[in-house]
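Run log, item B.
One chain of 197 residues. Sequence copied directly from the ordering sheet:
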Amino acid sequence: MNQSVGLPWPAVGDAPPDQALVARVALGDTQAYGALFDRLSPLIFGLVRRVLRNPAQSEEVTQEIMVEIWRTASRYDPSKGSVSAWALTMARRRAIDRVRSEQASADRDHLVGIRSAEIDFDQVTDTVVNNLEAQQVRHCLGSLTELQRESITLAYYQGYTYTEVAALLEANVSTVKARMRDGLMRLRDCLGVPGER
């Protein structure tokens, strides 16, 4: 061991193999992790960058993979391949998952945007039309005589029958019917609704 460097393995030309570093990382050796990080992170970043094409996301995924290597080093099995193949397989899978996730998110945002625009337009249109119609009806109700307005308001807005309206207004049922018929004809003309004369 080279005592001047302070590492638990020989100096630069005799760097330990990746498998030995992973074994030490599995035991929590931060120096071994630093050396493994220096070896693997450029390879992982290059692969992820080719898949994602976004430098910021590539850095993020590379960091996630390096953290995963730290956490799962004890699960590395040398019989299934080299350390770099193990790490690059994790990186490739994570990068593809990120692409799929970003595409799904973009698709959802697009659909929500389309639905939102349609709903907002319809709601605004309906609200404006309803407000204009209500304003026009109030104006036309104001042009009726008081007896016509009371009869129509009680029957159409409060749900009373002819008999109940007659009782409330202390009038004959036939008189109430005549007031309502005349009032409705005036409303129709005021609102511009075509009808029989």
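Observations after the first pass:
- The radius of gyration is 40 Å.
- Helices lie at 18-26, 30-52, 55-72, 83-142, 146-157, 162-169, 173-191.
Flagged for discussion on Thursday.
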